[in-house]
Amino acid sequence: MCTLSVSITLFAFCLICGNAMANRLQDKSYACSTVALMKLLRVEDELVRNIRSYVAKLKNKHQLVHQALSSMRAKERHMKTDYEAYLGNPLNSFRLIHRLHRDWEQLVRYTSEAQQNERGHIEHAHRLRMLLPSALDLEEANRGIDSLVDIYELQPEDLAAGTLVPRDTQPAAALSPLDCLALGNYCKKERNDRRAEAWFNASLERYDEDRLEYVVFGLSRKSIHNSWGMLLMKSQQETAGMSHLNTEGEENSFSKDIRKHYDSQMMYKRACSAVFRAPAHLHCRYNSSTTAFARIAPLKMEELSHDPYMVLFHDVVYESEMDWLLNAKQLKASLVGHYQYSAFRTSKEQHFHEYYNEAVVKSIHRRLTDMTGLSLIESDALTLINYGMGGHYDLHHDSHNYSEPNQILIGDRIATVLLYVGEVDSGGATIFPYINVSVRPTKGSAVLWYNLDNTGEINAKAMHAGCPVVVGSKYVLTKWINEMRQLFLTPCIRNKISNPKSR
């Protein structure tokens, strides 16, 4: 009876808190009502009063510190006229030591204490942030202006000038370059490219080089051109886009990165839809040379490329092994970089280490050794990856180039083996756009390629991607093989541990 009473009390408390939270969100939804906007005027008044007081204290501090420095500078100039004569007077020597020991310490202490006094204004400004519009409010405000433009067929340049109704201009309501830029970015996100361009153009037209305060708000003519250029690059207008990104007259690092990104995206899209034909000089054969066991049980192997070296093995994963893997799976979301979620890679995965006490895992590891002729010691764990609806992995290299601290000890990923443990009805190919190779998922097959060239450097041609799955569910088993244990198995790849920075 007591437990029931506590549960009812907790439920009532949660309900009250939930309602209170919902009420606060509703009260603070500024973009939905002009009544709510009245509150913002009072908040802005308080913000302005608080910042003015803060600026006044900063000015006072600046004036006092400037006077103290002027006094010290005058003494320094007097000393420099004749060092020996000045320091020959013991009183001057005493003053110098005293000044540098105590006065400078007091000056630093004063600036520190002043900062403590002024910090109250900053803290008050942070507290006021709770009353300010949220990102959702700004989204609704953007949508509201965009609806006016759409329904009443208004022009962004007219709205920027403060004109809502023809022949009724209100300069006081004119939008700033920052306002126009925000509306342009909103339209870009909503994929209304033509309207976004109009807003970017309005932002540039209203930009005033003499308004130095733009620096505070992170606005510059270059930032507007960058947003416009990225919009054009996204819509495959590369020439026009680069003209905006290179407004300074030459290609900078930012524009180069943008060009590289969108070129890669276009390459990725084209390669996923293309049908490649294997070169005539490549052959199919039985591989019996990698290990002693392979001489007894050779593997069916199809050459796909010589640079980078890439082969496709057929029928190397058994039905029973695939069933065990799929039944044993406990998948978690795949991460990239410093263990972060990213739209760059949409999949789930599970690791199976070599010391995993299961006959299937050990058997697959032995077969991988027969396939590659490489040592799997200190290599990454077998990873079962599942790509579902639209699941993909954008263009990337498997090699680290020593970007991770532990890679300097075990080496980079010299090779990758990708085993297909399920059928995919449509899509899901593994593509290598630089060498025009596309590997379609075939149940039981595996593709092996080298990520490094014969000097141990990243082979740019090994860049690859997993195309989105159209129909079905794609299961692959991945093994990344590290280079350090291959030192005597692949002697043509030199050891570059001694000079990792060159990587």
Polypeptide structure, described:
The chain is an alpha+beta fold. Helices cover 49% and strands 16% of the residues. A hairpin with a 4-residue loop joins β12 and β13. The protein is extended, with a radius of gyration of 33 Å. 24% of the residues are buried. The N terminus and C terminus are likely disordered.
Write the layout of secondary structure elements.
Elements (H helix, E strand, L loop, with lengths): L1 H26 L6 H48 L1 H6 L1 H39 L6 H17 L4 H5 L2 E3 L2 E2 L7 H13 L3 H14 L14 H14 L3 H8 L7 H21 L10 E4 L4 H5 L2 E8 L2 E6 L4 H10 L3 E2 L14 E5 L6 H14 L9 E6 L5 E4 L10 H4 L2 E8 L3 E4 L2 E3 L4 E3 L6 E5 L13 E3 L2 E4 L1 E9 L21
Antiparallel strand pairs: 1-2, 3-4, 4-5, 5-14, 6-7, 7-8, 8-17, 9-15, 10-14, 10-17, 11-16, 12-13, 12-15
Helix pairs in contact: 2-4, 5-7, 7-8, 8-9, 9-10, 9-11
What are the salient characteristics of this protein?
alpha+beta; 17 strands; 9-stranded antiparallel sheet; single chain; 4-stranded antiparallel sheet; disordered C terminus; 503 residues; 15 helices
Q: What is the first-to-last residue Cα distance?
A: 69 Å
Low-confidence stretches: 1-26, 493-503
- Rough shape? extended
Q: Using DSSP, what is the number of strands?
A: 17
